[in-house]
Amino acid sequence: MRTRDLGFLLAFSTALLPAGAWQLMCFGVPPGLAAWFPLVFIFGVVPWIDALCGDERRNEDDAAAAVRLEHTRYFRVLTALVVPVWLGLLAWCTARFAMLDSVPAQLGWLMSTGVIGGVLAINPAHELIHKSTRWEPLLGGVLLTSVGYAGFKVEHVRGHHLHVATPEDSSSARLDESVYAFVPRALWRNVRNAWRLEAQRLRGRGRSAWSWRNEMVAWYALWLVFMAVFAWAGGLRALGFFLGQGLIAAATLEVINYVEHYGLERRLIGPGRYERVTHHHSWNAPQRYTNWLLFNLQRHSDHHAVARRRYQALRHHEDSPQLPAGYATMFVLALVPPLWRRVMNPRALACRVVGEAGTF
């Protein structure tokens, strides 16, 4: 086992951040400040660790070694372990939320849990739902349902990957579009598109869209079970926390989608036909530490080129569009649209010029 492979264990470190925040409260830090500690670490400390750890641009060049890497069980175990870790953390955070009695503390705890859900629940779910085994997509669906965004399982695989970098895609941000316009549009259209895709699939098989064979019906039934459990265990306050953290987690995901695809376009080559998706149609970032935290999500260009490739085998492409910093920095930058446009518009336009010239 190589050192860089062990680094993916750091993905679980985000689960420790709420415990760190609670410990700060025990040491006397006001809850209204301590509850925000996870966000301070993710968006304030992670970029500095990225700078210290440097970039990871190496690829597995030996074909046999690449095949062995793809089939190493260790990497599958890590993503599977996320399910009990996240569900346990969510229950713990909900119980602690009930103990907080100030609005700043409650808001900080809710925001922190939601963002961690976007990192620790949705990101591994994204890896799992792409896989061809029976059990991995199921685990991914459970993770997505725990944050109320089960439609992502359907729309992302059968919608986003087909339409990425085109006007038909709900998760590809247009040039000059602000994150505040993009996120509500993406949340609404992705859920709607998931229902439409499932209805079309079932009608094509001569079945009713309103059946247990409809993934959306099944997953949202499980979501109602989650809601009932949280309401039974902690009342309306726990139920509200469960729903709130899910909305924040889903919004966190869509901010990352905004970063991953902003302003990039595939060329129209015929009526309703676009050029093939390649590693030139998503933004890439090589920061080693964040790629450990996110199971190589920042190698997003290669993910769209070969969607079934497992995270440990994703490749870095120097000729892909490159972000100027890691996701934590770009997330914060996206929240300031004038600054975002100043940094990203010239890069996106340059990628378009190169793409039109066909000289990537």
From TrEMBL:
One Pfam family in the UniProt entry: FA_desaturase
InterPro entries (alphabetical): AlkB/XylM, FA_desaturase_dom
Fatty acid desaturase domain: residues covered: 109-332
Keyword Oxidoreductase in record: yes
Keywords of this entry: Cell inner membrane, Cell membrane, Iron, Membrane, Metal-binding, Monooxygenase, Oxidoreductase, Transmembrane, Transmembrane helix
Topological category with respect to the lipid bilayer: Multi-pass membrane protein
Membrane spanning stretches: 33-53, 74-99, 105-125, 217-233
Family: Belongs to the fatty acid desaturase type 1 family. AlkB subfamily.
Protein name per Swiss-Prot or TrEMBL: Alkane 1-monooxygenase
Source lineage: Bacteria, Pseudomonadati, Pseudomonadota, Gammaproteobacteria, Lysobacterales
